[in-house]
């Protein structure tokens, strides 16, 4: 995630520290290595959230794969921040694997 200064994972909770934004805690709800999916929920954030749940899935294709990342968030006004953060993550992932990112 762009701007993450630190990240800790205790097997259930992922704690992220973002300079200037504060701490975020996410609960990993499920992980399935065979299906290549993960579901997580942010339960602690400097931005007030009524609800947050995200699902990440890597879908194998003939050549390479597609990353699907879906998030449901309330209040809806937070969606702009979440979307920008997710897009930043996708750019960083593309840089790490050496591939151009696509929307």
Number of E-type strands: 6
- What's the architecture in CATH terms? 2-Layer Sandwich
> Main β-sheet: number of strands, strand sense, barrel status?
6 strands, antiparallel
CATH H-level name... which superfamily?
A: START domain
Tell me the Rg in angstroms. 14 Å
Q: Mean pLDDT across all residues, rounded?
A: 86
Low-confidence stretches: none
Helix content: 10-25%
Strand content: over 45%
State the CATH class.
Alpha Beta
Principal-axis shape equals globular
Please give a structural write-up.
There is one protein chain. The chain is an alpha+beta fold and 103 residues long. It has one domain (6-97): Alpha-D-Glucose-1,6-Bisphosphate, Chain A, domain 4 (2-Layer Sandwich). The chain is 18% helix and 48% strand. The chain is built from one helix and six strands. It has one helix at 79-97, and strands at 6-9, 13-18, 22-32, 37-44, 51-60, 65-74. The chain has a six-stranded antiparallel beta sheet, with helices on one face. Strand 4 (37-44) and strand 5 (51-60) form a beta hairpin. The model has no long low-confidence stretch (mean pLDDT 86).
């Amino acid at each position: 995630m762009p701007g993450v200064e630190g990240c800790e994972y205790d097997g259930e909770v992922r704690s992220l520290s973002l300079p200037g934004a504060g701490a975020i805690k996410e609960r990993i709800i499920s992980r399935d290595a065979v299906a290549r999916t993960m579901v997580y929920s942010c339960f602690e954030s400097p931005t007030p959230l009524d609800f947050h749940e995200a699902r990440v899935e890597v879908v194998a294709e003939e050549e390479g794969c597609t990353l699907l990342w879906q998030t449901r968030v309330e209040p809806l006004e937070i969606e702009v921040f979440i979307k920008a953060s997710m897009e930043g993550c996708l750019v960083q992932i593309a840089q790490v694997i050496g591939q151009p990112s696509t929307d």
